[in-house]
């Protein structure tokens, strides 16, 4: 496991791997090396007192990137690499690894407000998805609004978001309704801000919304706000992300919220795990047969 910043990942991943019958090598970032070292040392001491192999949990004690490069060459010793962090880290691991990689790529999450949406519900969902915890991968980064409700909805949601300190960056059609906000550049549509910044685009219809998500999304989490069951089903069927919600905040894309318990991360790789990874996703299938002399004809 190669990760950045958060020392809680050290404890979460170690616990999940141990419970699912795996050994784990942890390589955290320089931002939390002292905390990671302390947590790993405590966990190893606990393993010793319970009679479990101490080396079931290991931590790389250096932060030099060469340590990552060395890990990525150990295909005879390591079964899978799971990188969790910024885009630069993920790309480096994928490009250099000789070992299968389960990518926990960036979360460019979208909410599409349909023309049939309950606009007050939509406003609350959008504010929650952006503001409740903006620095995580399941926070919404782009808001897509059906042109049929844009004039009515945009001023209300913009006021609520700006009261929370959110900077809005809009497309030309959005700027016609909200001329005081910043114009969005081409780079904004694929950006994971991890901050109180939100890109906003008015779309002609659901087809344009889905096309935008397919073009700029990271296959993480998308949500539609709608009162139309058939349109909800169409969105669920045609949006190709690991988590797709109807009338709910993107913040529910989380192992604990989805009933998996602690998670090792949210996979944006379709094989073998896709979406939040809990204990089951850290196992593989082994076929066992008891015979009494059967032969294949």
Structural features, described:
The protein has 297 residues and is α/β, with parallel strands linked by helices. It folds into two domains: 2-101, Aldehyde Dehydrogenase, Chain A, domain 1; 109-252, 3-Layer(aba) Sandwich (Aldehyde Dehydrogenase, Chain A, domain 2). Helix content is 35%, strand content 17%. The protein has nine helices and 13 strands. The protein has helices spanning 8-19, 33-50, 65-71, 87-96, 119-131, 147-163, 172-177, 206-216, 229-238, and strands at residues 2-3, 24-26, 57-59, 83-84, 109-113, 140-146, 167-170, 182-183, 197-203, 221-225, 243-246, 265-267, 275-277. The strands form four sheets. It has a seven-stranded parallel β-sheet with strand order 8-7-9-6-5-10-11, sandwiched between helices. The chain has a two-stranded parallel sheet with strand order 1-4. Strand 2 (24-26), helix 2 (33-50) and strand 3 form a beta-alpha-beta unit. The longest helix is centred in the first third of the chain and has 18 residues, at 33-50. The termini are far apart. The mean pLDDT is 95.
């Amino acid at each position: 496991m190669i990760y950045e910043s958060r020392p809680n990942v050290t404890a979460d991943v170690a616990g999940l791997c141990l419970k699912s019958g795996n050994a784990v090598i942890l390589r955290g970032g320089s931002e939390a090396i002292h905390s990671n070292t302390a947590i790993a040392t405590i966990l190893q001491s606990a393993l010793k007192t319970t009679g479990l192999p101490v080396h079931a949990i290991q931590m790389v004690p250096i932060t030099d990137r060469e340590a990552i490069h060395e890990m990525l060459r150990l295909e005879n010793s390591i079964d899978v690499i799971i990188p969790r962090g910024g885009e630069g880290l993920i790309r480096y691991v994928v490009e250099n690894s000789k070992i299968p990689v389960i990518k926990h790529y960036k979360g460019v999450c979208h909410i599409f407000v349909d023309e049939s949406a309950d606009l007050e519900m939509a406003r609350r969902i959008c504010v929650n998805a952006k503001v409740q915890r903006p620095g995580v991968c399941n926070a919404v980064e782009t808001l897509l609004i059906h042109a049929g409700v844009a004039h009515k909805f945009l001023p209300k949601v913009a006021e609520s978001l700006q009261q929370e300190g959110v900077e809005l960056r809009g497309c030309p059609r959005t700027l016609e309704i909200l001329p005081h906000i910043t114009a969005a550049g081409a780079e904004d549509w694929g950006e994971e801000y991890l901050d109180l910044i939100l890109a906003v685009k008015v779309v002609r219809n659901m087809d344009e919304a889905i096309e935008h998500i397919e073009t700029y999304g990271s296959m993480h989490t998308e949500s539609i706000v709608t009162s139309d069951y058939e349109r909800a089903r169409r969105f669920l069927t045609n949006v190709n992300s690991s988590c797709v919600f109807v009338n709910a905040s993107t913040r529910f894309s989380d192992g604990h919220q989805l009933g998996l318990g602690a998670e090792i991360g949210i996979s944006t790789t379709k094989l073998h795990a896709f979406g939040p990874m809990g204990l089951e996703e850290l196992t593989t299938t082994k076929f066992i047969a008891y015979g009494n002399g059967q032969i294949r004809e």
